[in-house]
Amino acid sequence: MATIIQVAELAGVSKATVSRVLSGSQLVAEETKLRVDHAIKQLGYRPNPAARALKSNRTNLIGVVIPTIESPFFGPFIGGVHAMLANTDFSLLFAGASVSPQSERRAVQSLIDRQCDGLILFLDFQVNPSELQDIDRYQDRMVMVGPNPSTFCNHQLSVDNLYGGYLAAKHLLQKGHRKIIFLSGEPHFDDARQRMQGCERALAEFGLSKKDIVIKFGPYSEEWGYEAGRDLLQKHKDCTAVLAGDDEIAAGVYTACRELGLQVGEDISVMGYDDMFFARHLYPSLTTIAQPMEEMGNQAASAIMDLIYQVDTIGRSTLLRPKLIERQSVKSLI
Amino acid sequence: MATIIQVAELAGVSKATVSRVLSGSQLVAEETKLRVDHAIKQLGYRPNPAARALKSNRTNLIGVVIPTIESPFFGPFIGGVHAMLANTDFSLLFAGASVSPQSERRAVQSLIDRQCDGLILFLDFQVNPSELQDIDRYQDRMVMVGPNPSTFCNHQLSVDNLYGGYLAAKHLLQKGHRKIIFLSGEPHFDDARQRMQGCERALAEFGLSKKDIVIKFGPYSEEWGYEAGRDLLQKHKDCTAVLAGDDEIAAGVYTACRELGLQVGEDISVMGYDDMFFARHLYPSLTTIAQPMEEMGNQAASAIMDLIYQVDTIGRSTLLRPKLIERQSVKSLI
DNA sequence: AAACTTCCTGTAACCGTTCACAAGGGTAAT
DNA sequence: ATTACCCTTGTGAACGGTTACAGGAAGTTT
Questions:
Q1: Could you tell me if A74 lies within 8 Å of chain B, comparing CB atoms?
Q2: What pLDDT does B147 receive?
Q3: Confidence of residue B313 (pLDDT cuts 50, 70, 90)
Q4: Mind listing the domains of chain B with CATH numbers?
Q5: How far is B252 from B55, CA to CA, in rounded Å?
Q6: Nucleic strand C within 7 A of Cβ B54
Q7: Residue A317 banded pLDDT, cuts 50, 70, 90
Q8: Radius of gyration of chain B (CA)
């Protein structure tokens, strides 16, 4: 591996000059620059990132934590981050967590210890800053992604769950549905609560309230969707639509409907949430709300770069708008 | 940020001694070790990875390239790698590619430039080693994952596509199917070709050959699965089963079946390949072959660590066995 | 012609580790 | 007492860059 000294010798200059050429500083004569560039190419010289980092305190590393990489949910997010970083000289240091506060803490700590220049944290739990060594150095070089607002970070990025809930409910209402079953996620999750609020707002626009629909809370799981769906669809035969807290629940509802001899998109309308990978593969394909995960990744990455380059050090929190994906599981009653 | 010198001063020793304590070398008196440990804790000292890397030529970074992170396929793989690395002090440096030879080359190069200790390369294309600066230094510190064997790396990890093809075909044959439509991936892909071979072997076991089934080649896509499925199912009404090159194709076949009024799992059996995320969400849920992606990630990670620690420098290539996932899309004729 | 700029380049200190080597003190052997 | 050896610790030179500072060579001003 060629070093800067060998480049300097070959070009007949000092290593300082080579360094200046490398950093694109303009205080170097055109003719010299050419000679250095040529030497670099000839030797196939690549700067040693460790040496750089040591001296300059910049690693050009962006650390990313996500709750679980296994979930197909986060692929597009990472992809969005990665795409944004592609033409920069930042690299992506990845730390997954695995659904426990400790593992999230460890993941974050490992990135801090690596001296990343910036941190993108997509966390399921609240991390306690006092448990993290040297986290304070990152106050202005991190963005928190996800539904849980954090107090110790002033750069927040999340999807507007309220708006999403509103979109979902309004879509059903606009299609003429009035008797609706809402299978919501557990209300102690911020996102579930917000979707619920959005739903209420849509109801209000149509002169209705929470009391006019059937609501049940449960985990984001297919099993629960199946059980709750079967149960409530039997009890409330007049209902024409199910608003599911997420696509997993919706998938469970599909199964329940098949069991009850109800044809989705015909006898009963189903609305999902999240546009998970399988949503378009269900039959009939599921109308749902898409979270702009890739867009979020983009935004997170560009925000972090702004922060690193200090383009803009004012704290801000960005809300991204989810989108209605209309497929075939919702029938128009009008 | 505390440095080793401050730790040394606080403990009343030299930095060399601190370094020795850190590296767990035994040439340090118990009493001294205690004092140093205490100082480390008190200062919250974290070794500077850049300085370490500079001096020791070890970054403790494992670089991973995958074709696309967006695909849900690779989440479990990365997860497997990550899980294996979790209790070591290696970190995972991630570089995605985006379905082009150039972007794969760039991704690999960026990891080399970062001086990773080891490389895990999951590539779609053949990279030409001569196009990669300093790749030769990685000859014995990389593992190639995926169907395409490479000549310049002697540590290969892939799934046994031949066995998978065999498994899939045998399953249909065992269930009594004889008139089969095989919607294979393009034969210029190694994996498609191998699956085909496995299929032939299964046919042979039942006294049949390629000529006894209907074969068509096409891209791994739902669209093609739909078109080819509709076309061939109409032409060959006596066929009882479709063997799809992958789950996407199978999903397309489902659509074709619905259009033709054929009930999957009843009138026609469908076998997938890959156990993609949506496979269990199709209706009826798809019987398919699961690639052990997470297991592959595990193996890749532990192989790379063996290589780094030189546990075993003999080139080897490992074949992992895919698994049959029996669901409801294949009917037994016997 | 001296003094002052401007432009370019070199010198050398420094970043925080690791590690080869030297050295000190203690114990055992001669 | 001298020598030899072990155990533990310290000294100082790397590693490969960056950058403040100094300095030399032109060109410009007085």
A1: yes
A2: 76
A3: low
A4: 4-47 (1.10.260.40), 59-160+294-321 (3.40.50.2300), 161-291 (3.40.50.2300)
A5: 56
A6: yes
A7: confident
A8: 26
